[in-house]
Write a structure and sequence with these properties.
Structural class: alpha/beta
Oligomer: single chain
Number of helices: 13
Shape: globular
Strand content: 15-25%
Radius of gyration: 21 Å
Length: 471
């Protein structure tokens, strides 16, 4: 059942590398008043998960409604059209049913920040309008501190910037999104507006006033016990030690990095607030479905790791808030599981579009939005190119693609919510392990099956994806 509006509009807000360090998710320090306000108006999902904790595969997955091994994008820069050329993306489904679709900023993969101001690895067929902001942060990269000088995209780096919000790339994302909203308010035509922020991805750049929100002395750096890495299977150990300059950071340096991350979250929150205020001021809010999320989670020192790209809770769990007037329970908090692949069917369902193509995976979250006590999933599935993980109410089980008796991890989250004690070889958990391994294998089979009714070309393992040359 759709909402009471004949064709409600959609505002699809995506951030980059944002974990659940938000006020509405219970973080004691991070100030995120605008995201928190959105949570008060809609439904917050406590247990939402990405399907791949890397930007390119995650974004291609939720936009196509296919798991990464079904659209070919299992590495950063592949283009899904090379493998499923006829896939109808989420925004295309709206376009085919009377909507205008626009992208401002990053929705598909970009090399961030190198690709800012370009199309990145966009899918042109997905939009009627596309806008590629470029702000002061790009022009002042020489001012940014980095653990590896001159390297920003995959290295801890930050800057407390001079100037105003509107001069930064994400400030321009908000400004351009507001400009489009003004046009849509006059045109009175249904729209799907994708608002893609580039932060809080490194480099953590935000105006200085956002750094001033936090006291460096109040920031806690996560600790890992001596010998912890030796308890992990080799692929898991490699995943949390992949960024060598960021291992065993001195306490003061780690505090500064976390401080900068929090500041950048608050900056992005303010830009989201600008868009939400405009939606209300223009009289569009009552007819708008808003979905807010991030492409994946992010470690800030947990497991000794800074970045994403792991099969632990920190990288796999994402913030997810959906507001749908006439549908959602204001301020509701859903405990049931959700996956990002569910976005396609959920938004289509909420506005009453014809069903998506049969090959589109995912489950509509509309029953949960109507009553947060409802559940549509009993677990959540995430993968990397070399492993799979399943999150249930009480456990996380991970299986790596290696021929080794120690290719399993099992975490009892009732006793170990930080996922620091691998009990896969503990006989006390033999029965649970067998049950969970069977459930995981079922999810793997579903997520790797060839999409029915869609031409699919299996990618060559040597295909590392397109490369872009940036000015």
């Amino acid at each position: 059942m759709a909402s009471s509006v004949a064709k409600p509009n959609v505002v699809f807000i995506m951030t980059d590398d944002l974990n659940c360090d938000l006020g509405s998710y219970g973080h004691p320090l991070v100030q995120s008043p605008n995201i928190d306000r959105l949570a008060e108006e809609g439904v917050l999902f406590e247990n939402a998960y990405c399907n791949y904790p890397v930007c390119g595969p995650s974004r291609a997955s939720f936009m196509t409604g296919l798991y990464p091994e079904q659209n070919g994008v299992t590495v950063l820069r592949r283009m899904f059209r090379d493998y499923v050329p006829d896939a109808v993306t989420l925004s295309q489904h709206f376009m085919a049913n009377g909507y205008t679709a626009a992208r401002v900023g990053k929705i598909y993969h970009y090399d961030n920040p190198r690709g800012i101001g370009t199309d990145g690895h966009d899918d042109p067929a997905s939009w009627d309008t596309k806008i590629n902001p470029r702000g002061r942060d790009k022009e002042e990269e020489e001012k940014i501190f980095s653990l590896r000088p001159g390297s920003f995209g995959a290295t801890l780096s930050w800057l407390a910037a001079e100037g105003e919000d509107e001069e930064q790339t994400d400030g321009i994302v908000a400004t351009e999104s507001i400009r489009l909203l003004r046009q849509y308010a006059v045109a009175e035509e249904p729209f799907f507006l994708a608002v893609g922020f580039y932060k809080p991805h490194t480099p953590y750049v935000a105006p200085k006033k956002y750094f001033d929100l936090y006291d460096l002395s109040e920031i806690t750096v996560p600790r890992i016990p001596e010998g912890y890495l030796d308890t992990l299977p080799e692929p898991a150990r490699k995943s949390v030690t992949a960024f060598k300059p960021q291992i065993d950071l001195p306490e003061e340096m780690a505090r500064k990095a976390i401080h900068a991350y929090y500041a950048t979250i608050s900056f992005v929150d303010a830009q989201i607030g600008r868009v939400m205020d405009a939606l209300e001021d223009l009289g569009l809010k009552e007819d708008a479905i808003v979905l807010f999320s991030s492409d994946h989670g992010y470690h800030m020192g947990e497991h000794g790791h800074y970045q994403k790209n792991t099969l632990f809770e920190n990288a796999d769990r994402v913030p997810l808030i959906i507001s749908a007037p006439g549908v959602t329970q204001s301020g509701g908090r859903a405990q049931g599981f959700a996956e990002m692949i569910d976005f396609y069917r959920t938004l289509s369902d909420l506005v009453g579009l014809p069903p998506p193509p049969d090959y589109v995976k995912g489950i509509s979250l509309q029953p949960v939005l109507r009553d947060v006590s409802n559940t549509v999933r009993s677990n959540a599935f995430t993968q990397l190119i070399n492993g799979y993980t399943l999150r249930t109410d009480n456990f996380r089980i991970t299986q790596w693609k290696i021929d080794d008796p120690d290719n399993l991890e099992l975490y009892d989250r009732r006793r170990d919510p930080e996922e620091m004690r691998n009990v896969a070889r503990n006989l006390e958990y033999k029965q649970e392990l067998e049950y969970l391994l069977k459930a995981l294998k079922g999810r793997i089979a579903d997520a790797t099956a060839r999409p029915i009714g869609l031409d699919f070309t299996l990618p060559d393992s040597s295909d590392r994806g397109v490369q872009k040359t940036y000015d």
